[in-house]
Amino acid sequence: MIRKLLPIAVFAVFCAAAALIMLNRPQASRSSSPPVPSVRVEVQTVQPQDYRVRLQSYGVVRPRTQSTLLPQVTGEILEVGADFREGGFFEQGDLLLRIDARDYEAALATARANLAQAEQALQEEQAQAEQALQDWRRLGNSEAPPALVSRQPQLAAARASRDSAQAAVRQAQLNLERTRIVAPFAGRVLSKSVDVGQLVNSSTTLAEIYAIDYVEVRLPLKNQELDFIRLPEAYRYDSAPDQVLPAVTLNSTLAGSQSWQGQIVRTEGAIDTRSQQLHVVAVIDDPYGLKAQGRQPLKINQYVSAQIEGRLLQSVLVIPNSTLYQGSYVYLVDDGLLRRQDVEVLWQNGTEALIGAGLKAGDLLVTTALGQVNSGTRVQVMNASQAIASPESGEGKGAGS
After folding, report:
1. Which tens digit of pLDDT belongs to each residue from 316-331?
2. Residue 254's beta-bridge partner residues?
């Protein structure tokens, strides 16, 4: 009996489960169209502005004049100036070194004695020549006497001996003066090679010195930057060109952050063969005087970065670098849709880019960083009211070199 009822019971359970599933099946929601994805962005209205280009470069501090100090006479060094040491300052005419002068004092005395003898011989010869002329006339000769009779060759030789003796005295005086080695200009000692007691000659290097009235920095410019600066060019027949020299700010981090103001004073006459770049020369006046007080003085061979004042451009379009993708395109908002726009970058620094083509005034430039987003994507502008305001006039703060 149980075997007959078991299949009927299983079938009944199965039917009940099927009915329960049919009664509780999910209802499909119907929509007329799928939701459209959108991106939330911030924008900036592109507006023309006046913009001062500032080119960035770099260089090494060099002296205006650097000289190798050599003696012109031979002798032992007896005295060294108090400031004749590495880093020491000196003024023009200061005594740097003194060489033993006794030999040169003796040579001067000898030269003066020889000069006195030569002058005496000349006077005697002049007297003999006058006497010979009187004797010639006493004999009744009215014509001029022959040269030998009037002792003209002897007189000329005596004058030549006197002139030679005078030259020897001047040379001895000059050698004596050269035992005192004085500073040719106001400067500083870069390196010192000798000291008291050392025997020196004309081939001995005494020191390396340099002038301190101003220092120079040689700065390279990229070729594409040359259109954005007025270079101080010189021409053959233009002895005093009336040009406004570009200002330059030199920065150093040798001892904290410090800056120096200078000017671009000249453009080199050749392209660097290695980098194929043009170099300009900046000058900083009086880097070790009153302008240096309270700061670490500039050091020769010190590395500095430079910001060079370029042209003031009128009504140009400048955008942040963060809105530029791969250096060639930006995203705009057009009728609520995202649009990719190719642009031409004329010049670029670390924060901004100068646009030559591809944008126009009034374009809504997307400032939000985007990933892989397709043109035509619907967007929501988060700062629509602020985007209407025009950006203020800016200045370039630097350029990669």
Report:
1. 999 999 999 988 899 9
2. 256
Q: Is beta strand 49-63 parallel, antiparallel or unpaired with respect to 303-320?
A: antiparallel
Separation between Cα atoms, residue 109 and residue 114, nearest integer Å: 9
Identify the three-state secondary structure at position 353.
strand
DSSP conformation class of 87: T
Cβ proximity of 245 and 308 under 8 Å:
no
Phi, psi at 343, each rounded to 5°: -135, 160
Distance CA 214, CA 62 (A): 9
Higher pLDDT, residue 296 or 175: 175
* Per-residue pLDDT, 32: 52
Which amino acid is it at 340? Answer: R
Q: Measured between alpha carbons, how far is 62 from 304 in angstroms, rounded to an integer?
A: 11
Predicted pLDDT at 10: 61
Query: Hey, which residues does 334 pair with through a beta bridge?
Result: 337
Looking at residue 37, its pLDDT comes to 60
Sign of CA dihedral 348, 351, 356, 358: positive
Mean pLDDT of 179-191: 94
| CA gap 100, 79 in Å, rounded | 9
- Quote the CA–CA distance of 372 and 370 in Å, as a whole number: 7
The span from the CA of 172 to the CA of 181, in Å, is 16
Whole-model pTM over 0.85: no
The CB-side HSE value for 262 (13 A sphere, CA atoms) comes to 29
